[in-house]
Design brief:
One of its GO terms (biological process) is tRNA wobble position uridine thiolation. The chain has about 500 residues and is of the alpha/beta class. The chain contains 20 helices and 13 strands. The chain has a single domain, classed as HUPs (Rossmann fold). The radius of gyration is 24 Å and the shape is globular. The structure holds zinc ion (2 copies). The site of one zinc ion has 8 residues, from helix 17.
């Protein structure tokens, strides 16, 4: 082997894996020369397009009807509208194109190949299709506002409606009140210095939504917590938008590659209990919010979950899609968080060993978390694992203060503590002791106070709860548990924190 160029030299030392297995001929039609290699298999363009459309529909259509379909398909009849989450990134750009060409303005070139009797071309599947974009530039210094650019791109598609939100809407009572017709303007302030997260309710907030949002982010303990928190806030904002637009389905452009990244990085941050939800979840909103909606639940589906980021790139290239791109969510100057490190690792793995990435996702798909669910986490709206606080109290003494106070302090009753209403990840994120994000994120920010406001879905619930304590039995709805509609009783709440209570 010649050693004239450095690549050849590297190959001589450690032979690179060949990109494809056998020949350069398409594995599907066995005629055309291949144009693209997908996990060692060569495809021509004519075979790639229907193959990808098939994978997309296979991940979505069995979950469209209220009752999941068996192998024999019936016509697609969702109970509500469709909401597409759009970030400007490659995955969501491809997702929007597929949704448009399969269900909004059916494209005959896509649909003839795998049509059939129940073809979506016959009747529009979702009556209304909304596309929602959540802008984060106001909380991340140095990032660009892409709302106009996204709006222009989405409005080129006939038959979809554009909704634009800003991340601080999570703290904006005018947004909340306008969609849920509430007129509560109270605020809930949580004390982060205490692991039980006691809170007080106050009159209307003096902070702007943006300053409340910044204070919330400034309290985060590690660089890793920033993308996790933003992702959760965006997802829950979208869930409430879906409820408000009567959308029974909410789609995300998470590719196989991004899914592998989020699964691994979530598990490494203690989110193992939510492995199933990372892939697919069904959100049952609090009955108080659902009462004005035509839909009982929102299905969150990731129809690109079997399609790698590379296949998305090929699709975007061949379909001449414009990809706006999205910002990286990092603290300026911080070491990369777990999410970033996992992403680099998975991307590298995908280049050299493409099948490994789908193995990660398949393996995670087989995991089922141990332990039972005790309702829905107030912050991230995902199932909360039973007895998290009790378990945490058993396994760790996290500060000297805990030891010193153990014999003397009596924690706040469950009615005024947030901790029993949170999942493990959210509780850990709020209470971990690390360097707070404030100096890196907001150099001019005045030193973070110990009290922060919580997003509106949480404060609205807690305000309802506070009212309940003082007056009657009506008006307050406990969170409905994820499965079986079980409600979390006061006894269970108390059980969850029993280790903290000294009778
Ligand atoms: Zn072919
Ligand atoms: Zn949570």
């Amino acid at each position: 082997m010649s050693c004239e160029n450095p690549t050849a030299e590297a190959d001589a030392i450690m032979p690179r894996k060949r990109k494809y297995d056998k020949s350069r001929t398409c594995v599907k039609c066995k005629e055309n020369a291949g144009n693209v290699v997908v996990r060692h298999a060569v495809y021509c363009r004519a075979c790639f397009i229907p193959q990808m459309t098939y994978k997309f529909r296979r991940s979505l259509e069995p979950y469209v009807n209220a009752k999941p379909d068996g192998p024999r398909r019936t016509a697609l009849k969702p109970t509500g509208n469709l909401l597409v989450a759009f970030s400007g990134g490659l995955g969501s750009t491809v997702l929007l194109d597929l949704v448009n060409r399969c269900y909004v303005s059916p494209d005959p070139t896509l649909l003839t190949a795998d049509g059939g009797r129940d073809h979506p071309r016959n009747e529009r599947v979702w009556k209304r299709v909304h596309v929602c974009y959540v802008e984060c530039c106001d909380v991340l210094l140095g990032t660009k506002d892409r709302t106009e650019e996204v709006k222009n791109l989405v409005e080129q598609i006939q038959g979809v409606e554009f909704i634009s939100l800003r991340i601080q809407d999570a703290f904006d009572s005018s947004w909340w009140n306008s969609i849920f017709h509430e007129d509560s303007n109270g605020d809930v302030v949580v004390d982060l210095s205490d692991e039980m997260l006691p809170f007080v309710t106050t009159g209307s907030s003096t902070q702007t939504p943006l300053s409340a949002m910044k204070a919330y982010l400034a309290s985060l303990p590690t660089p890793t917590a920033l993308p996790t928190t933003l992702n959760n806030l965006i997802r829950v904002l979208l869930q409430h938008t879906a409820l408000n637009t009567n959308s029974s389905h909410l789609l995300f452009g998470t590719s196989l590659t991004s899914l592998a990244v989020s699964l691994i990085s979530n598990v490494s941050q203690g989110g193992g209990f939510h492995v199933k939800e990372e892939m697919q979840e069904e959100w049952f909103p609090d009955a108080r919010l659902a009462k004005n909606s035509k839909i009982g639940s929102v299905r969150l589906i990731r129809p690109l979950k079997d399609i790698s980021v590379k296949e998305c790139g090929v699709w975007a290239w061949w379909s001449r899609l414009r990809v706006i791109g999205r910002e990286e969510w990092t603290w300026p100057g911080a070491k990369p968080g777990i999410g970033r490190l996992t992403k680099d690792f998975i991307r590298g793995l995908e280049t050299d060993y493409p099948s490994t990435v789908s193995t990660i996702v398949r393996t995670c798909g087989k995991l089922s978390p141990k332990g039972s669910t005790s309702g829905q986490c107030l912050l991230c709206q995902r199932p909360a694992q039973e007895g998290v606080q009790a378990w945490k109290a058993r396994i760790a003494i996290r500060s000297h203060d805990d030891v010193a106070l153990a014999g003397t302090s009596v924690p706040d009753p469950p009615g005024h503590a947030l901790a029993p209403l949170l999942c493990y990840v959210c509780h850990t994120t709020l209470t971990s002791k690390g360097t707070r994000a404030a100096p890196a994120l907001y150099p001019s920010h005045t030193s973070p106070s110990v009290g922060i406001s919580v997003p509106l879905w949480a404060s609205s619930y807690l305000l309802g709860s506070a009212l309940h304590d003082e007056s009657s039995d009506t008006g307050f709805v406990e969170p409905v548990a994820f499965s079986g509609g079980k409600r979390m009783s006061q006894e269970e709440l108390r059980g969850a924190i029993s280790e903290f209570i000294l009778d």
